Amino acid sequence: MGTSIAVAGKGGTGKTTLAALVVLELTRRGLGPVLVIDADPDANLGTILGLEVEKTIGDLREEVLEEIKNFPPGMSKADYVEAGLHQIIEETPKFDLITMGRGEGSGCYCYLNTLVRKFSEELFPSYKWIVMDNEAGLEHISRRTTSNINNLLIVVNDNPISLNTAKSILELSTKLKNSIDNLYIITNMVKDERKAELMNRIKDLDVEYLGDIPYDNLLGDAIFNNNPLADLKGSIAVERISKILDKIGG
Ligand SMILES: Nc1ncnc2c1ncn2[C@@H]1O[C@H](COP(=O)(O)OP(=O)(O)OP(=O)(O)O)[C@@H](O)[C@H]1O
Ligand SMILES: [Mg+2]
C-alpha cells in the first residue's frame, strides 16, 4: 500500500503549490509513479502540474445519474463508475492525476461516493506515494470521501486565521480517530520578522512542526509565467520541500 500525503489549511496558504512541489520532488527521487488526487472542487493542481484536465469525478457522477436510464441490460452503476474512473485518470510517465471536481448537487450521491472511494482505494496499491490537495477546510476528510491519510500537512501562513483553521483541522482529526496517522504543521511565506512569534503560537497547538518554506521569488515567477515547476533550479522552496520529505520518509 502506498504512503499518502495530504495537504490542508486555510485558503491561500499555498496548499496546491506545496502539493505540486511534493509530487515533483517524489518523482525527481524516482519514487513514481505517484498518484495525485486533486480534492479541491475549485481544481487547479492539474494546471500547476502542467496538465489539462478533461473530466472529473464530479462529471462522472453527473453522467451516471443522467445515463442510468440508458444503461444496457446487465450494466450496473458499479460497472459504469469503474469504467468511467479509468477514463478520468490522467496518466503521465511520472504521475497519474485524479481530479475530484465539483461535489454534490441536488441528487443523492452517497452510493456513488462510496463506489468512487472503493475504486480509488483499489488503485492505491499500484502506487508508492499518493499526494492529495484539499480545498480550504476539510470537507472531503470530514465527509470521509477520502480514505485513510498517513501524513497530513497543515499549511499555516502569517494570517492568524490560518492558525484557527489548523486548530479546527486538529480537532476534527481527533474526532475522526484512526483515519489520519500523522499530523504536521508547515509554515509558508512567513516574513522573517514574524517567524519567532508565529512559532510561539504554533507551540500552543501541540502538533509536530515539520519546517518552513519561505516566500520564493523563483517559484512565484515560474507560476506567474506559466513555466513548468519541474524546471525550477536553485529554488529555496524546492530545497525545503525536499527536507520535509526526508522527515516523513520520502
Ligand atoms: N513559498 C511560496 N513562494 C512564492 N509563492 C508562493 C509560495 N507558496 C504559495 N505561493 C503563491 O501563493 C498563491 C496561493 O497559493 P496556492 O494557490 O497554492 O494556495 P492554496 O492554499 O492552494 O489556495 P486555495 O485555498 O485557494 O486552494 C499562489 O499565487 C502561489 O503561487
Ligand atoms: Mg489550492
What would your notes on this structure say?
This protein is α/β, with parallel strands linked by helices. It has one domain: P-loop containing nucleotide triphosphate hydrolases (Rossmann fold, 3-Layer(aba) Sandwich), CATH 3.40.50.300. It has helices spanning 15-28, 45-48, 57-67, 77-88, 110-123, 139-142, 160-175, 192-203, 217-224, 236-247, and strands spanning 3-9, 34-39, 90-91, 95-99, 129-134, 149-156, 180-188, 208-213. Strands 3-4-2-5-1-6-7-8 form an eight-stranded mixed sheet. β6 (149-156), α7 (160-175) and β7 (180-188) form a beta-alpha-beta unit. The site of adenosine-5'-triphosphate has 18 residues, from α1 and α9.
The CATH homologous superfamily is named P-loop containing nucleotide triphosphate hydrolases
Task: Detail the poorly predicted runs.
Answer: none
> What is CATH's topology name?
Rossmann fold
Specify Rg, calculated over alpha carbons. 18 Å
